[in-house]
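Researcher: Please predict.
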Amino acid sequence: MARPVFWAAPPAVLGIIKGDCPIDTTGLQHQFTPALAPLATRILLNNLDHGLGYLASRPALVTLGKLAAARSLEIYLVGGSVRELALGRVAHDLDLAVSAQTLELARDLASALGGTYVLLDEAEGTARVVWQGEVLDLAEFRAPSLEGDLAGRDFTLNALAVDLNAVLGQGPPRLIDPWGGLADLARGRLRMVAPENFHDDPLRLLRAYRFAATHGFQITPATTAAIRRAAPEFSRVAAERVHQELFLLLGVPSATPALRAMEAVGLLGRVFPELDDLKGVEQNGYHHLDVFGHSMATVTALEEVLAAPTAYFGEMAPEVVRYAHQPPKTALLKLAALFHDAGKPQVQVRRSNPARYTFYFHEKVGLEIFSRVASRLRCSQAETRTVTSLIQMHMRPFLLLPAFRERELSFRALGRLVRAARPELPGLFALAMADSLAGQGPLKPADSEAVLADLADAAYQFLKERLEPQERHPKLLSGHDLIRLGLAPGPRFRQLLTAVEEAQWEGMVQTREEALKMVQRLL
């Protein structure tokens, strides 16, 4: 028997959106992008009904329902789980609101399933149960009733609930929607439940723009105004929570509109106060924007490059695709784009003959600045290493361009770039291309991007035709060979062995005997 279609409570919600124009649902079924058009309510409800049908037989939920019934507890599927099911997406991780005894219930559930119990916040009564790849997050009502709990949530489309008994087919199906969240979801509209809820948890300010980026939702003017007023409170948010939301936002193909909207309400500077120092810092004739404007434009250009690498690169294009498809490389690249010139304000010097600004060693200062940002955001060592490497090296492709343009670039110079950049070589050239595209000053050569693309291909060819084949064979010399020549172990070892490897790149050394003679000449 087909499951009944859910209806929204109160019924007045349906009246609000009854006149919505129908949309073409061909090929959409249970997966679609809400930014394309306002969504018809019936599609949302059909999707929700279909998704809940899959949940009804989940052993974890069945067991949870039995444990709750034995304690006479109320449990509801809430928030993002309901929203994502209505959008036709699979809900792997489930959010559940529990009327009381939440931590005890979660422990018993984990024990009954043979799963793992994770205490999230004892004071707030939140816990997680993990079992066979399923994740159930249980949170105690933040008010005496479900309606009060929903009233304390961030956005109306997250203030939705379905009784677990209904999910399990043990009661009449009813979507609980006291704030008109279904109507907002149908229109792709992100509307706050109440302004004071931002003060209760200022992370919600960032979540608004994360949802705008990940789901294509439009933030309502009243919500935007409330975010602007609450922005000074963002400093109260724990860094780990900021990190999670920020990486979700930056990981989408087009994060720039959300970043610019954050800047417009004063939130971007609360997340990254270091960026405020870039505003009003003038640059030389290769640029048409100040450092802040250029940094934002670099993120925009980077997203264009990542969306269509073949439009900008030749042989390097597939490598850029593979690189960007490794989470969280896309987010890390955008952080590098935001901060690649962060050191310029500290090293800016006005010079004459000709009149210009210089920014010597700004990449080194920028690296140090982002290292502090990464520490504040609790970035992992791998995340920090990737971004700082990209910032530190972002000028190196440009420094090689004059010699490359004149066909005077040596294999040694090219090889040093390739070796230093690995494994971030594709990301480095994607960032360099975006950096070039974002600079449109009068002194910039018209063929800058074309020459940069050729350099990227040369770097890729060097990697595949010289460096990697050489690495697959034993080294011509080792440290033991240098000791037999009478040398004591130390920094000079690495210098000599590196010199031999670089001579191999250029074809000057091909055998062990030739390598030994070269070392003897260098001593």
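Model: The CA atoms of residues 412 and 502 lie 6 Å apart.
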